[in-house]
Amino acid sequence: MTNTPATSDLFAPARLGPLHLPNRLVMAPMTRNRAAADGTPTPLMAAYYAQRASAGLIIAEATTPNAVGRTYPDIPAIHDPAHVAGWRRVTGAVHAAGGRMFLQLQHGGRIGHPDNSGLTPLAPSPIPLPDTVFTRGGHRPAVVPLEMTAGDIRSTVADFAAAARNAVEAGFAGVEVHAANGYLIHQFLARGTNHRTDAYGGPVAGRIRFAVEVVRAVADAIGPERVGVRISPGFTGNGMDEGDTDDIYPALVDALAGMGLAYLHVVFADPGQPLFHTIRNRWPGTLIANPALPWPGPLPADGGRHEAERLLAAGADLISLGRAFLANPDLVERLRIGAPLNPVRDEHLMYVGGETGYTDYPFLTRPRRGSRPDRPSPRPCAEQPTRPVPRPGTGLVIDPARRGFRDGRQAVPGPGRRTVDHRRRGPSSRRHRLYVGCHT
Ligand SMILES: Cc1cc2nc3c(=O)[nH]c(=O)nc-3n(C[C@H](O)[C@H](O)[C@H](O)COP(=O)(O)O)c2cc1C
Predict the structure, then answer these.
(1) Residues contacting ligand 1 via CB (< 6 Å)
(2) How far, in Å, from the CA of 290 to the mean position of ligand 1?
(3) Which CATH number covers residue 68?
(4) Fewer CB within 10 Å: C terminus or N terminus of the chain?
(5) 53 within a domain of the structure (yes/no)
(6) What pLDDT, in 10s, does the model give residues 245-282?
């Protein structure tokens, strides 16, 4: 049930089942390949997520519910006590920083490789990904997956349920079932990847069956109010061809609608598309929308705020942002005050590991005591060292890598990407002080 009053204010509080969210900004799940080789989350991951605890909700990255579902190297898992212990460190750090967290459960299906999992991937049908898969040894041609037997389907459903129990034990408020972006559950939904002739294939009613069984089993395991589902209607990446998008999603949404789930999460949601409104009208609960921002390519200067507000106005309850959160640990504060955003450093997104491009994105920082807030910084910004990242919510002067106009104006997020002339504000204005850290 929707228990969140409608608003187009991203900073209005919301409820999500038993959770109180201080704002409507959700950090979208993002694979970053910083887990240990066996899938155990690392202390570095705890630091990364804790930095982003001011999000209304964090949905942690795709995490494998069983060994064969593993996609890529160094992605986290949640099917072993060591994984649970590792994730407990992460949720503990996020809770200590004031945050709330769900975990995304992802089985890769045909997106996997024996070099990553030691196993031949399983999929609805033996149709390989028409692409390479990244392995520790580099990109390798995808292998032909094994068609899942009825027993494989049963045990995979059970693995999702067990992983959800583990997630709750690890301290997550709930889990998100990943039925999007071309991974196993999506492979069942789509005609191009599901050629089965049994009850799990054929017409839409058959192709949604696996998704519904997984979600029901997970909901039975941990309670429906702790379960979200992510979908990506019309997604064509990862070799996907859904065939009958406009039939799949109404049927799937109807099948899930009565379960009392925490939320439905729509990827690349576009309020200009009729299907978005169809889904909104049929889904009685909380709808998280992930705006369709330029992909690939640089984010808009407002980080997606304008699109986010359009989606709220079109009926979404919460907005998830990916890359903007990745590059801005204090994204909520930046959007709230109209501060510029750190650009995404694409070369550090995935597969590379380490702190660079992960935990070293700067926060807004507070001016040194006694410094004149209306004076340029004494050294050119380019020479300023990267500062250690402070705890969330503490910072105030701008990231040296991004700056406003030389004359003191700043681009601020919002409809029409307005500019604000801060010279008209007095130097004592808090907003003014935020923008004067760098004038080169
Ligand atoms: C580095 C990276 C990793 C991602 N990994 C996942 C993932 O694990 N699960 C998922 O559902 N989507 C994943 N996504 C997609 C994001 O959740 C999000 O849908 C996408 O980035 C679009 O949102 P944005 O325009 O705000 O970045 C990933 C995106 C990026 C950039």
Answers:
(1) 28-31, 61-62, 104, 178, 180-181, 230, 267, 290, 293, 295, 304, 321-324, 349-350
(2) 9
(3) 3.20.20.70
(4) N
(5) yes
(6) 999 999 999 999 999 999 999 999 999 999 999 999 99
